Amino acid sequence: MGNKYFYIDGKLDDQGVVPLPLAQNGEPVWIGNNSQHLDRAFFGWIDEVAIFSRALSAKEVSAMYDAGDPATWSQSEKPAAIGQRREM
């Protein structure tokens, strides 16, 4: 089992337990929809999505939120948690 954490505006909003390993398939990652179930679309605004190769600590999530809009960060301003970002 593993833990999941959901943050809104840099603050922990929800957490839970998930079975490991996570299921994998050949489908692409979609943010706000499901490539296998198109009737499960999210209707609303999704902003500043990031996918990391490791779990971030609560302190790292908070530091990223406190740093403001990531689109305006200079290389020296990026919190250490971000490392190298890839544009999706």
Structure commentary:
With 88 residues, the protein is an alpha+beta fold. The protein has one helix spanning 58-66, and strands at 2-8, 11-18. It has one domain. The protein has 1 helix and 2 strands. It has a two-stranded antiparallel sheet with strand order 1-2. The model is unreliable at 81-88 (pLDDT under 50).
Principal-axis shape: globular
Largest sheet: 2 strands, antiparallel
SSE order in H/E notation?
EEH
Q: In order across it, which strands form the biggest sheet? A: 1-2
How many helices does DSSP assign?
1
Q: Which bin fits the share of residues in helices?
A: 10-25%
- Average of per-residue pLDDT values: 79
Report low-confidence residues grouped into runs of 5 or more. 81-88
The proportion of strand residues reads 15-25%
Rg calc = 15 Å
What is the rounded distance between the termini? 29 Å
Number of strands: 2
How many domain modules? Answer: 1
Q: Helix/strand-derived class?
A: alpha+beta
What's the arrangement of secondary structure elements?
Elements: E1 2-8, E2 11-18, H1 58-66
Antiparallel strand pairs: 1-2
Summarize the structure.
This protein has one domain (2-72).
Key descriptive features of the protein:
1 helix; 10% helix; alpha+beta; 88 residues; disordered C terminus; single chain; two-stranded antiparallel ribbon
